Amino acid sequence: MIAIVVFHVVMVLLGLGITSRVISVQSVNDTLDYLHKTIGITTPSLEQTQTVALVWIGSTILIVDGSLFLLVFMTKVLS
Q: I need a labelling partner for 9 at 20 to 30 A (CA). Which of 20, 26, 57, 65 fits?
């Protein structure tokens, strides 16, 4: 339970850091560039970096929460 709360706090703080530009746009762009090249998709421009980073953060939160929900749902149904 604590890990889930810590995960959400870290993700929200990361999103706030990107939005408020506490974390430099260039470092976020470099990270997204590496991630996109690893996956094999087009890298965003410097102007799109903030939006794309927030979309990645939101997607990660939804995937983790959805997986945890399905895990809890399936264990209750099967037990």
A: 26
